[in-house]
C-alpha cells in the first residue's frame, strides 16, 4: 500500500476533489453541531462515504443511500421494540434482514444495489446500540436519518455547485474512443494476416468497455448535462456496439476460411472489403455511402444465390455478415449522432429496446446467496458472544460485523480487502489517540478544529482519487471520524475510545473470518463459473428452453466476457478459454437462428436439425462437468449432412435462411477442412449420439 501511495502523482483535479469533499464534510459537521444532533460525526463520515469526482455518480449514490437508510431505520423500529425481550430472536431477525438485503444488492447491477445494501446494515447500525434502551429506538432512527441525509445534502450541493464534473462529457469521450476502436478492429478483422492475439485483445477490451459504459450511463438521470435523461438511448448504443463484436469475428473467420480454401480473396470481393473498412473508419456517417455499399454487396452476392461448393457458401455467408455489419454500424452512428444533436430517431432506439433490458445482464444467484449467508453468520456469531458475555461494546462489534460483511461483497475474494480494512482501522486508532490526547485538548472554537483537521483530511482525500489507494484513504478517514466522535464539547474517555476501537476491529475480524470460509472464491473459480453459466445458456438455447430475443442472448454472453476480462490478469491460464468465448457466441446465435428457421425446411431436414441441436446441447452440458471436453466428431458429420441436403434442395423457400446459420455453425465446430457438397451423403444419418461422458442414457 505504501508503495502505491509513494507512486501516486495527484493532478490538480485530484486536489480539487479533496478540497471539495473536505469543505462538504466540514459544512455537514458545522450544521450538525449547530443543531445539536445526536452524532454529528455521522454527517461528516457520510460525506466521505458517498464522495465521488463525478457529480452524477455522487447524486445517484446519495439518493439511494437516503432511501436505503430510511428503509433500514424503519426495519430497526419494527424489530427492536417487539423482540428486545428475546435477544436470540432479535439477533436472528436483524441478521436475516442484513443478509436478505445484501442478497438483493448483489443481484442488482445498477445504483439501486446501494439502496439494498444500506437498508441492510443501517438496520444493524440503528438497532444494535438501542438493545439496552429500546425506548430510544425511534429517536435514534430519526437522528441517523437526519445526520446521514445532512451529509448527503452537503456533499451533493458542493459537488454540483463548486466546479462540477459531469458524467456526460466523460461518457462522450469514452464513446468517441470506442467508436474509433471499433473502426480499428474492423480494419484488423478484414485482414487475413492480422495477428490472432491482437484481435483477441481488442475484442476483449471493447467487450469490457461496453460494461463500463453501462456502469456510467445509469448515472445520467441524476445530473444536468446534455445527456441527462438519455440513459435509454445510451443503452441502445451499448447494445449496438456489443452486436458488432460477434459480427466482426464472423467476418474475419469467413475471410480466413475463404483464403485457406481458395488461396486468396477474389479481387472484386477484396475491393468491397476495402471500401467497407474505409467506410467504418470515417468520422462522419454517410447514409448514401452505406446504401451504395449494401447495393454492391447484394449485387456481388447474387452470383452465389445457388451455391454448390464451399467457396460459394462462404461468400454467401460473408455477404450476409457484411450487410449485418453495415446495419449495426449505421445504428451506432445514428444513435451517437442523434445523442450529440439532442434527437435520436425513435425507430432506431426501438430496434435495440429488448437487448437493453435487465435480462441482458449476468446475475449470479449463487454468489449473491453466499454473500447474504456470510452476513447472517458473521452477525449471529458476534451477537452470540455479546449475549453470553454481556460485553458493553458488543453492539459496536455486531454492527461492524454486519457492515464488514456487506461493503466488500462485490469482490471475488473480499478477505484481503477486509484484512486491509482491519489494519487501517488499527492505524486509524493510533491517529485518533494522537488527536484525542495531543491536539483536540488545545482546540477552542470550530475554526481551529477545521485547521487541525485540514492537513490530515486533505492528504487522505487525495488518496481516494486512485483505485489503488482508495480503500486506504476511505478507511483512514471514516474510522478516524467515527471513533473520534467529535461533539459540541471536548471529552476524552480513553478507555471508552479504546474499547470502541477494539470492538470495531473484532466485528471486522469476524466478518473476514466467516467470509474466508463461506463467501470467498478464487479468481479461477469465478472465471469457471462465468464460463460454465455461458455453456448452460448455450445448451438451453440449443434445446429451445431459453426463450430470449436474439440480441438479449448475445448481450448476456458478451456481458459475461466483459466480466471475465478484468480477472484474466490474475488468471492467465484461462486466456485460451476466453479466446474460445467469441466463437461460442457465434454458436449460440447460429443455434437461435436454426430454431427460428427450421420451420421453413421440410419435415425430414427439420428432424435432422432437431437431432443436431440436441447433441450440441448435450455437448455443452458435458462441458459443464468436463471442462476440457471436445465435441463428438459425429456432430460435425451430421451438420455436413444437413448442409448437403439444404444445398441440393434449391426449391426450398427457406433455403437461404437456413444456409446462413448452418455455415456459421460448421465453421465454429471445425476450422479445418471443408464439407463435401454436391452429392448425397454416403452414410446414414445417426438419429442420436450415444451418451456423453458423465451422462446417463
Present the secondary structure layout:
Layout: H1 2-7, H2 12-34, H3 40-50, H4 55-83, H5 87-107, H6 112-127, H7 137-161, H8 167-189, H9 196-217, H10 231-262, H11 267-280, H12 287-301, H13 310-341, H14 346-351, H15 365-389, H16 394-407, H17 415-439, H18 446-463, H19 470-484, H20 494-518, H21 523-543, H22 550-568, H23 575-579, H24 581-597, H25 603-625, H26 633-648, H27 655-669
Q: Return the domain count.
A: 3
Number of strands: 0
As a whole number of angstroms, the C-alpha radius of gyration is 30 Å
Give the rounded overall mean pLDDT.
82
Instruction: Summarize the helix and strand pattern as letters.
Output: HHHHHHHHHHHHHHHHHHHHHHHHHHH
Strand content: under 5%
Poorly predicted sequence stretches spanning 5 or more consecutive residues: 681-686, 689-697
Structural summary, described in words:
With 697 residues, the chain is mainly α. 74% of the residues lie in helices and 0% in strands. Helix 2 runs antiparallel to helix 3, helix 4 (55-83) runs antiparallel to helix 5 (87-107) and helix 10 (231-262) packs across helix 22. The chain is elongated and about 95 Å long.
Kindly list the characteristics that best describe this protein.
697 residues; mainly alpha; Methane Monooxygenase Hydroxylase, Chain G, domain 1; 27 helices; elongated; disordered C terminus
Q: In summary, what is this structure?
A:
The protein has 697 residues and is mainly alpha-helical.
Amino acid at each position: 500500500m505504501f508503495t502505491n501511495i509513494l507512486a501516486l502523482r495527484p493532478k490538480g483535479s485530484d486536489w480539487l476533489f479533496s478540497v471539495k469533499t473536505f469543505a462538504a464534510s466540514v459544512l455537514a459537521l458545522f450544521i450538525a453541531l449547530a443543531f445539536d444532533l445526536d452524532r454529528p460525526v455521522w454527517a461528516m463520515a457520510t460525506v466521505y462515504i458517498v464522495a465521488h469526482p463525478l457529480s452524477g455518480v455522487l447524486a445517484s449514490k446519495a439518493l439511494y443511500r437516503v432511501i436505503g437508510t430510511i428503509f433500514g431505520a424503519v426495519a430497526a423500529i419494527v424489530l427492536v421494540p417487539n423482540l428486545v425481550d428475546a435477544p436470540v430472536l432479535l439477533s436472528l431477525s436483524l441478521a436475516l434482514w442484513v443478509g436478505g438485503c445484501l442478497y438483493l444488492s448483489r443481484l442488482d447491477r445498477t445504483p439501486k444495489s446501494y439502496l439494498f445494501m444500506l437498508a441492510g446494515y443501517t438496520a444493524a447500525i440503528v438497532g444494535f446500540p438501542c438493545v439496552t434502551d429500546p425506548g430510544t429506538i425511534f429517536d435514534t432512527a430519526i437522528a441517523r436519518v437526519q445526520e446521514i441525509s445532512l451529509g448527503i445534502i452537503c456533499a451533493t450541493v458542493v459537488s454540483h455547485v463548486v466546479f462540477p464534473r459531469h458524467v456526460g462529457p466523460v461518457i462522450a469521450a469514452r464513446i468517441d474512443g470506442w467508436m474509433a476502436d471499433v473502426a480499428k478492429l474492423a480494419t484488423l478483422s478484414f485482414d487475413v494476416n492480422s495477428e490472432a492475439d491482437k484481435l483477441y485483445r481488442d475484442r476483449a477490451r471493447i467487450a469490457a468497455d461496453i460494461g463500463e459504459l453501462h456502469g456510467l450511463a445509469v448515472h445520467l438521470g441524476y445530473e444536468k448535462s446534455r445527456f441527462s435523461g438519455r440513459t435509454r438511448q445510451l443503452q441502445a448504443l451499448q447494445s449496438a456496439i456489443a452486436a458488432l463484436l460477434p459480427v466482426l469475428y464472423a467476418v474475419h473467420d469467413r475471410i480466413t476460411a475463404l483464403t485457406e480454401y481458395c488461396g486468396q480473396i477474389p479481387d472484386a470481393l477484396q475491393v468491397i472489403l476495402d471500401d467497407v473498412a474505409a467506410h467504418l473508419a470515417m468520422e462522419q456517417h454517410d447514409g448514401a455511402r452505406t446504401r451504395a455499399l449494401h447495393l454492391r454487396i447484394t449485387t456481388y452476392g447474387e452470383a452465389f444465390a445457388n451455391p454448390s461448393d464451399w467457396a460459394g457458401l462462404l461468400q454467401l455467408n460473408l455477404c450476409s455478415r457484411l450487410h449485418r455489419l453495415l446495419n449495426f454500424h449505421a445504428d451506432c452512428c445514428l444513435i451517437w449522432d442523434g445523442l450529440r444533436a439532442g434527437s435520436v430517431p425513435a425507430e432506431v432506439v426501438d430496434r435495440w429496446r429488448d437487448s437493453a433490458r435487465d435480462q441482458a445482464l449476468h446475475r449470479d444467484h449463487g454468489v449473491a446467496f453466499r454473500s447474504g449467508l456470510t452476513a447472517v453468520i458473521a452477525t449471529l456469531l458476534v451477537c452470540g458472544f455479546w449475549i453470553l458475555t454481556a460485553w458493553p461494546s458488543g453492539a459496536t462489534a455486531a454492527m461492524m460485523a454486519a457492515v464488514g460483511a456487506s461493503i466488500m461483497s462485490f469482490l471475488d475474494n473480499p478477505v484481503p480487502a477486509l484484512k486491509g480494512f482491519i489494519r487501517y482501522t488499527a492505524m486509524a486508532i493510533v491517529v485518533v489517540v494522537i488527536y484525542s490526547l495531543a491536539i483536540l485538548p488545545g482546540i477552542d472554537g470550530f475554526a481551529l478544529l477545521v485547521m487541525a483537521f485540514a492537513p490530515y483530511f486533505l492528504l487522505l482525500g487525495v488518496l481516494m482519487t486512485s483505485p489503488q489507494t482508495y480503500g486506504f484513504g476511505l478507511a483512514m478517514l471514516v474510522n478516524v471520524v467515527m471513533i473520534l466522535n467529535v461533539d459540541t464539547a471536548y471529552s476524552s474517555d480513553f478507555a471508552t475510545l479504546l474499547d470502541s476501537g477494539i470492538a470495531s476491529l473484532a466485528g471486522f475480524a469476524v466478518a473476514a473470518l466467516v467470509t474466508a470460509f463461506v463467501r470467498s472464491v478464487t479468481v479461477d473459480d469465478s472465471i469457471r463459473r462465468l464460463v460454465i453459466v455461458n455453456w448452460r445458456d448455450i445448451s438451453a438455447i440449443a434445446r429451445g428452453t431459453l426463450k430470449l430475443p436474439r440480441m438479449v442472448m448475445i448481450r448476456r454472453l458478451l456481458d459475461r466476457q466483459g466480466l471475465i476480462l478484468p480477472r484474466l490478469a490474475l488468471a492467465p491460464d484461462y486466456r485460451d478459454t476466453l479466446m474460445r468465448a467469441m466463437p461460442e457466441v457465434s454458436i449460440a446465435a447460429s443455434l437461435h437462428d436454426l430454431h427460428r428457421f427450421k420451420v421453413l425446411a421440410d419435415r425430414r431436414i427439420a428432424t435432422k436439425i432437431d437431432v443436431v441441436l440436441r447433441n450440441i446441447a448435450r455437448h455443452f452440458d458435458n462441458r459443464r462437468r468436463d471442462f476440457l471436453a471436445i465435441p463428438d466428431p459425429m456432430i460435425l458429420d451430421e451438420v455436413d449432412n444437413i448442409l448437403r441436403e439444404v444445398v441440393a434442395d434449391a426449391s426450398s423457400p427457406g433455403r437461404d435462411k437456413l444456409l446462413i446459420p448452418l455455415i456459421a455453425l460448421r465453421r465454429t465446430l471445425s476450422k479445418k477442412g471443408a464439407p463435401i457438397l454436391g452429392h448425397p451423403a454416403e452414410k446414414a444419418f445417426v438419429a442420436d449420439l450415444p451418451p456423453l461422458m458423465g451422462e446417463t442414457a
